[in-house]
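Q: what sequence does this backbone want?
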């Protein structure tokens, strides 16, 4: 017999969007024994996931969310979530009063506020809850989750979020999670490009990038790009595809838009957003974000290795 606390911490959950990061997040929820139903646009992915984890494969978004206390969405952009709200197969047709939509999409705050406003009259809660930590963090259940919305709503669903995270930060009202995520992603994009430009220069000067990184990574110029991404993915020429460049281009576009809306002069963010837009055009929709280094290498006529 589960004890009283265990009984209260089990939540009927629906997960929609079994992409690169959504899939391992959903697997953590299934492993934490929350009864889980899943829906994915490409149905085979949900069918395979259901077979592997014992989750219920739902036939539509409305079917996935019926009876759920917590509904988690993880799509490329906020408008994908918004587009699933209406219609006979939509989320609003299935979600019950008192339930909560937790959107783990790295979204935009304005659309998150519009989604929350559509749910509120039905007494359905909403949190924007983007994640960081990458696919490997999702596989280990160690993501960081940045949450926007009502603190009491977060407490209602915390146990489900905890199944895939080791840190949950309540950042403020609806949209605050999206805003923190967008700015974090702008840092990532800027650091990655800066590291690529600097290392291309060092290679052309005849300095080993491995030796240069040994110095930089114990000096003030270090970043996640110099400490992890470049050593593990560029110097090895592995360039694994874990987080699409198209998604980072979307993220820094959100950050650039927020800077503009708030009249914050942000030329570095704007320029980096433009460079990622160029890279997305050149490298396409499936390229990984670290592959922007290849664009810098091509311009410089050198490989960082
Ligand atoms: P993917 O591109 O791997 O997966 C996207 C998911 O959304 C898939 O399930 C896909 O379905 C579905 N989808 C795409 N378009 C539509 C649509 N029009 N209607 C319905 N479903 C759709 O993305 P990720 O999993 O990498 O990213 C998801 C979110 O998480 C993004 O906002 C991203 O920025 C963020 N994120 C990603 C990280 C990563 O390391 N990958 C890290 C941190 C945040 P289908 O299977 O049919 O293609």
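A:
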């Amino acid at each position: 017999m589960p004890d009283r606390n265990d009984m209260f911490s089990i939540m009927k959950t629906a997960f929609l969007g079994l992409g690169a990061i959504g899939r391992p997040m959903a697997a953590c929820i299934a492993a934490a024994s929350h009864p889980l139903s899943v829906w994915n646009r490409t149905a085979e992915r949900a069918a395979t996931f259901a077979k592997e984890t014992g989750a219920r494969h739902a036939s539509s978004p409305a079917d996935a969310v019926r009876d759920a206390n917590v509904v988690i969405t993880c799509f490329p952009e906020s408008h994908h979530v918004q587009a699933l709200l209406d219609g006979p197969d939509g989320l609003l047709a299935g979600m019950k009063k008192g339930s909560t939509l937790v959107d783990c999409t790295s979204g935009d705050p304005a659309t998150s506020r519009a989604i929350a406003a559509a749910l509120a009259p039905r007494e359905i809660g909403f949190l924007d809850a983007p994640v960081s930590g990458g696919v490997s963090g999702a596989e280990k259940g160690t993501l960081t989750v940045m949450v926007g919305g009502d603190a009491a709503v977060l407490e209602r669903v915390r146990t489900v979020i905890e199944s895939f995270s080791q840190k949950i930060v309540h950042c403020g009202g609806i949209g605050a999670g999206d805003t923190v995520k967008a700015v974090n992603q702008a840092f990532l994009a800027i650091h990655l490009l800066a590291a690529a430009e600097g290392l291309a220069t060092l290679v052309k000067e005849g300095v080993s990038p491995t030796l240069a990184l040994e110095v930089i990574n114990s000096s003030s110029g270090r970043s996640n790009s110099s400490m992890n991404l470049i050593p593990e993915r560029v110097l090895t020429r592995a360039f694994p595809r874990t987080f699409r460049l198209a998604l980072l281009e979307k993220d820094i576009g959100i950050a650039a838009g927020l800077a503009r809306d708030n009249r914050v002069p942000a030329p570095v963010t704007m320029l980096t957003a433009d460079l990622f837009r160029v890279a997305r055009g050149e490298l396409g929709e499936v390229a990984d974000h670290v592959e922007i280094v290849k664009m810098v290498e091509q311009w410089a006529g050198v490989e960082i290795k």
